[in-house]
Write a structure and sequence with these properties.
- The protein is mainly α.
- The protein has seven helices and no strands.
- It has helices spanning 6-37, 41-54, 60-71, 75-88, 95-106, 111-123, 128-136.
- The longest helix has 32 residues, at 6-37.
- The N and C termini lie far apart (36 Å).
Length: 138
Amino acid sequence: LYPNDPKFEFYRSAYFLGDSLRDTTKKLLNNASVEFNNKNYAKSAEIYLQASRFDPIDPSYLENAGHSLYLLNDKSKAKMLFDSVITYYPNTKGKAYYFKGLMLIESKSSLEESCRMFSISLKRGYSDAQKAINLFCK
């Protein structure tokens, strides 16, 4: 009933992970964020993937690892992660759709498919997709 409520998310992670694993993933998330902010994208991706192994229910770790790999220009691995999120996590916030759309633009693939990805991303609440729609799809 309340999938976006932070309190519900805390209870969900405590129930499924237990306190020690929840604390571990929180530390990993903090470390990955620091590495990402310091532009150490390879290390950031590695840590996000490690966190994903501890909490496979949360797709944001895979999305963030994909984002890091995207910034490293490792497009094939990034695409694999984004496709995995799109396929196996139907209730994501749209980040994977956004980055897949950008990758389609960069590879000069179908503009129509890119715009479809941006549209899905925006509908799921990823606001950066609006900028991409304005830039590429109008």
